[in-house]
Amino acid sequence: MILKILNKDFLNNKVITVAIFIFIMLSAILISCGTSMFIDLNNSLDYFMGKADAPHFSQYHSGIIDQEAIDRWSKANPMVKVYQTSEMINIEGKKIFFNQVEYSQDNSVMDNAFVTQNEHFDFLLDLDNKMVTVNNGEIAVPIFYMQRYDLEIGDTLYIKDKNTEITFTITDFVRDVQMNPSILSSKRFVISESDFQTLKKAFGEIEYIISFKINDLTKISKFANHYGSSNLPQKGPAVDYQLIKIANSITDGLVAAVIILISLLLNIIALLCLRFTILSTIEEDYREIGVMKAIGIRPYDIKRIYIAKYFIISFSASIVGFIISILLNKHFSKNIMLYIGTAPKSLFKIILPLLATFIIFTMVIIICIIILRRFDKISAIDAIRIGSTGETYRSKKGLSLYRYSFVNANIFLGLRDVIQRFKLYMLLFFVFIVCTSVIIVPLNFINTIQSPDIVKYMGLGKCDMLIFLRQSDNTIETYNEMIDYIKNDPEVMNFAPFITCKYKVLNKDSYEESLTVETGDFSVFPIEYTHGLAPKLDNEIALSHLSAKELKKGLGDEIQLMVNGSYKTMIVSGIYQDITNGGKTAKASITPNHNKAVWYIINIEFDGDIIEKINEYKELFPEAKINDVMSYLQQTFGNTIDQLKLVTVLAIVLAILVSILITSLFLKMLIAKDSAQIAIMRAIGLASNDIKIQYITRSLIVLNLGVIIGTIVSNILGERILSMVLSIVGASNIKFVINPLEAYVFTPIILMVIVTITTLISIGNIKRISMSDISHE
After folding, report:
1. What are the structural domain ranges in the chain?
2. Based on CB atoms within 10 Å of each CB, which residue in 146, 201, 235, 455 is the most buried?
């Protein structure tokens, strides 16, 4: 009897059994690939940072330095293990050309620094993670440019101005532990010592990186505070080991998280199919189950019969999925391998993805056990006597056809069937919800990143043009000249200058730490605050999400900020989101400390041609980085957007395939279940097309309900899940920028067309059903 039940179940549900197998397999593939990406990212990043011997703390400085003072301080500091000062030659983008001299990097937001290989640590690596070496006339170019311009070994780089032209042959590409990601706006090119001296005389200005490795990595914050309290060079940003690690991992980490999320959604679909199949099987085998209970077989033993089947399905699907994921891992980790390389293989690379796959398998078995608890409620006598679960779908009062004669009869009958048997359509309903979410969430996320609104997660207000001015010896003079010119520019509708400086603040343990504070008038180009308002008074300060979290401060709390040589009590007026500078920034209406200034930013709103205005300002102020907002965002997040587009395409394809497969399987099952009813309708004269309209109506009603709920779920849960993930880098309250055409028009239309076509194909055999078939059965 046991073999008879299992064999009958396989034969009757072979199609949906295959579907369950496919969904579990796909879920296993994606969760294994996503987990492998996290492991590759973690292991490769650790390996990369080890091979590059990444600095624990680096201070960038524009201007003159006193190397002897740096030496004395470093040697006297017991925390310092080794230190070095590296020179960089910053050359304007308009003087740099790849291959064709006609096209420069004038519109690039990147600061281009030409350096030699470092001597002690912070090594610049090639694509094999070996130290880059170049000869005279050769250059190693950052991977960012290789990927952006499809550069190859042997291509040419020109540095050219009115009087001088220097040509380099590209012989290698650089992995730079400090400046690899596109979200960082500086890039280092490696040249020989001789070429460096030539460039030093002819081009650009010198900037320094003062880097340290310390004895105890856990004391980086303490060391940074010591350095900030000294009189050593500090005209520029400072980065630490943790910030380097976050910057190198955020893009691929985000992609891996999205892949795992899609995997879990697919597993939900598999579990829904599983529940539907088990309940259908119980109904079909109700009498046999009653017989088994009547002859003394325990419910536990009966459950094992069914669990054995789904154990085999889920186990084999999980193993097949895991094996396929091994073959696909290289494709998913392609960007990781390009930017940071691959670490030596470890046992965890196999164990953790296998464990993630095992979790999928375990979820399936647990759900089976929960669903099969229904066996405990089955009465042997009732099962043998009645032969079914007794669950019926009663007619709803008021849904008689004669009451709605103004509605097409076939459409009405389709609608009535969904209402009367909605429990039967729950599988299709939930699948459409999940498929809608799988499509809409990635689309909304990409639209958000590509939108100008993304600036509000960077601590910036909306504007037309951004001017960035790095700290140097003549920055204040240049800055004042720019302000005077902007004030007198008739096409400028509005502008606001902001100066970002370093200030000392007492942390939660009353120790000094350095805090990056932006000063200016925050009523112009206001940003959005998750809590509170912008600082207006000179004793108010707004903190970024991560700064508030680290300092353990909320609205109305007081912090001690050193202003003009003494600590001043500041009241927290607001909390905002910021993913720049490691997410740890602040804003205050206080006098800027020009000696500790990191950078200057001017936000401008124009009434006129922005491109012409940008070119005008670039000619007047070559020292500044001037870009329109969209260009700045595209270059900053370009690589992240490209990665997410690939994941979005994958998600859309999977959602469409799932919709086709489940709709087809469900309708085939439904037609088999309704075959007697279909035969009767045909016998009383209904044409096949009339019956088809009823089934199309059912599918589209369920689809529309699923799309509506799926859209709502996507907008609410999608934002919350994304906010949870991005809160680690400073964006704690993401609000989707929704493209109404994509979300509310194209997505429903595409699903409607696909479901309609699938329904027509799936119900094509209705015309073959007749009373003779039913009589024969």
Report:
1. 1-59+240-389, 83-214, 409-451+638-777, 473-622
2. 235
